[in-house]
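Predict the assembly for these two chains.
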Amino acid sequence: MSEEFCFEVLAQDNTARTGMITTARGKIRTPAFMPVGTAATVKAMHPGSVKALGADIVLCNTYHLMLRPGPERVAALSGLHKFMNWPWPILTDSGGYQVMSLSKLRKLDENGVTFQSHIDGALYRLTPERAMEIQDLLDSDIRMQLDECVRLPCPEQEVRRAMKLSLAWAERSKKAFGAKPGRALFGIVQGGADEDLRQASAKALTDIGFDGYALGGLAVGEPRPVMLAMIECALPWLPAGKPRYLMGAGTPDDLLECVRRGIDMFDCVLPTRAGRHGLAYTRAGRLNLRNARHADDPAPIDPPASCAAARDYSRAYLHHLVKSGEILGMMLLTEINLAYYQELMEDMRRAIAAGGFDDFCAAAKEAWHAGEAGAPSQ
Amino acid sequence: MSEEFCFEVLAQDNTARTGMITTARGKIRTPAFMPVGTAATVKAMHPGSVKALGADIVLCNTYHLMLRPGPERVAALSGLHKFMNWPWPILTDSGGYQVMSLSKLRKLDENGVTFQSHIDGALYRLTPERAMEIQDLLDSDIRMQLDECVRLPCPEQEVRRAMKLSLAWAERSKKAFGAKPGRALFGIVQGGADEDLRQASAKALTDIGFDGYALGGLAVGEPRPVMLAMIECALPWLPAGKPRYLMGAGTPDDLLECVRRGIDMFDCVLPTRAGRHGLAYTRAGRLNLRNARHADDPAPIDPPASCAAARDYSRAYLHHLVKSGEILGMMLLTEINLAYYQELMEDMRRAIAAGGFDDFCAAAKEAWHAGEAGAPSQ
């Protein structure tokens, strides 16, 4: 448990890079995709299966765990890892994003934010210090500063104000975090869709100094070129020797394009949420299993796959499960999607190490396109 | 695939017995509990996990599969076993019971029953011959005759009429079944809560001759002593060398009391349905994980269990999952319940073979009682 948190870049292919994060609870191969375990569970998955599919780390949401079951309770139960039977690394966010997107009657001030629970209307207060305290009670391996995330589009002065506030909270978060051997604290770059603000945020955070750096307030509905432009403008101002985490993205294509630009870590509800709604992400593109064209198709999603859900069940059966609202349909499609996401990350790591990242991306996109446009079955 | 269907009683302890059913797709240890896979899935379970917990056979519902995805489609997809990725034995019911309990606008005549689907209102017709044909398209290993199941209480003449009709349909079902090496057809004893009718039904079915015999129209809300009395009066009239199946029961205590009286096979939605509603069946009785007393309890459901769900997750975590409506809660509690049911069957088989069935029952009931009345935690 005393191993220091560290990051090593092992290979680089233009701006894409592959490396290894070391934490007290295990190593994380990068670029890494973190399945989202919102309320201390990656929905519809046994934790051992999430690991077996290739995840080195999962993300849990401070906002949700703060409301239920409560961080003090989790601490009394020996921490989040024991609680959710996931002994490997966990990253927790700060709660700031969900306070904005989920809570009722949010009231922000310089010191923090007061909000009503979306579950029962109870009042809660989150400050940079409390966000650190909660994450310490959960005992997560990678922790995020509290930030303020604005909805885009947004007036420039409002974006600037939120960015400045997030910087002030970054300093307070770092102070509250203190020295935690084996645990890491990440700062979060804000600044909306404004290149100058993004650069200023990245520089100021680097001056404060964190174990890693995230890009926040992106993948929230802005045009994709804006997201990519913000990444391109911010990354050069962040220290090359620290991990870079794009929060909340994305589609398989987002993963390719953001890794290409130098992102090391991702989280997104897409593969798990889509799996609960009948959608499968595969090497041949996205399939909607609700579609009647699958009803008589004996072909599995991906016969040579090592993932049992993609190999041992026909599209006809998955269609039947989805149409019938069966839980097994959600289980199998979530498994298929997480398996594909992890396979994509592994393929990217290998391609970067071999110096063939651009070729890999082109081939992956070609396969998605051929699959979507191609025959309904195989 | 050509192995003949047969049944062998291996040991008897008073009227309780343990044996082995051989089918073309595998052996079934009796007394056996068959998890219910209504719509070609044991809800919230991977099929491999159902098998690993000790199930030799599952039950699927002809009514549900007839409506969706349709038996002709399942046949075109190489049968139900391939469809649901369960290569081991499957028993299908005839659809009669769900026509009564689920369908709209049911219209019964001598030849069969016409009903509206509860899903989309479409009209369907079920006759003894069509029930056999559907089960043949599904290619199940054990098939049930079409019967008419009355709701209790019910006037005697109505019970008699339904019992007679079920007998006529039994003959037609047997004729329609024909000769199917490796597949079995079971007749169903009806007769409501009337001992004379039950005996007459059992005798007449035995005269027709089936591979096994079920008791239908029980465990449908009648007082428990009535159910046990009906079993006691009917079983002596059935051939001792054939399996006896009590349809739709029951609680763990039902299993003990009915095995004691000579029942060999059971199916019931209780362990799976209860698991989706926060209830756990254990050696220490039934637990309601929704109850707040579990919120801070670090103890697993059953620490020495071989079932991972009962061993590796705290009651506090299960409580959290149930309160949060998380799918993993349903998955783990279903697993816990099926594991306990299969453990109970295995323990009964062993106790019967050792000649200690009564002692085993007394000890099991004592443990349930001590657990329910005992301390909230361990």
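The longest strand of chain B covers residues 6-13. The two ends of chain B are 48 Å apart (CA to CA).
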